[in-house]
Design a protein that fits this description.
One of its GO terms (molecular function) is DNA binding. By secondary structure, this protein is mainly alpha-helical. The chain has 10 helices and no strands. The chain has 2 domains: 47 residues, Orthogonal Bundle (Arc Repressor Mutant, subunit A), CATH 1.10.10; 141 residues, Tetracycline Repressor, domain 2, CATH 1.10.357. The chain starts with 9 loop residues before the first helix and ends in a 6-residue tail after the last helix. The N terminus is likely disordered.
């Protein structure tokens, strides 16, 4: 069984910090290493078979360092869901913000999401497991992701780039489409041209399923 060790080095420097937020850059690096290692461990083995000792071995950190930032495997898993959501947000947001209009922003957003999934395939397993391990984190991931889509849509509508009545249902429809396209062309098919996938999906958003004359 994994047991906490006495903190040493950078772990000791963070001791006495009740909310466990790293106070030093070294501590922040250690925390990122633990989260990156946890992503691999949970992604490969799943929550129940993963272990704290394996996470610290992958991270190249002392076991005691883990307990400087987390009290349990459940706690690092919860933090990991937030961390991966934030990584996805930080990857996609600058690209969509630079788009010339809202329709282009959705194409660029989907294309960048597909690229992110190919580089971080573990995200699907981790988010799927969160439904059963930490439902609040699972729901928060999707709600915050779709909230960003909705904000983009409403901003585009305000600029007159898309229809004026966009709202929650439209945002969830786009979010759902992106999730399944990510599964199909991010996880299952690495040979598909993600730019073309995004183009086809974007044409559907822009023009619907009406017959093209």
């Amino acid at each position: 069984m994994d047991q906490p060790h006495v903190a040493t080095g950078d772990a000791a420097a963070e001791a006495g910090n009740p909310d466990k937020t790293p106070r030093t850059e070294r501590g922040r690096r250690t925390l990122r290493k633990l989260l990156d290692a946890a992503a691999i461990e949970f992604g490969e083995r799943g929550f129940h078979d993963a272990s704290i000792s394996a996470i610290t071995r992958r991270a190249g950190t002392a076991l005691g360092s883990f307990y400087t930032y987390f009290d349990s495997k459940d706690e690092i898993f919860q933090a990991l869901v937030r961390y991966m959501s934030e990584q996805l947000r930080d990857h996609v947001t600058p690209l969509v913000q630079a788009a010339p209009d809202e329709i282009s922003a959705e194409r660029i957003g989907l294309e960048s999401f597909l690229g992110f999934v190919r580089e971080h395939k573990e995200i699907y397993r981790i988010i799927d497991e969160a439904e059963f391990v930490d439902y609040a984190s699972y729901r928060r991931h999707y709600e915050t992701t779709v909230a960003r889509v909705r904000q983009r849509l409403e901003d585009g509508a305000a600029r007159g780039e898309i229809r004026a009545d966009v709202g929650e249902v439209h945002a969830w429809a786009i979010g759902g489409m992106n999730v399944f396209l990510g599964m199909r062309y991010g996880l299952w098919d690495e040979d598909a041209d993600i730019a073309e996938i995004a183009r086809v999906a974007n044409d559907l958003l822009a023009n619907g399923l009406k017959r093209q004359d």
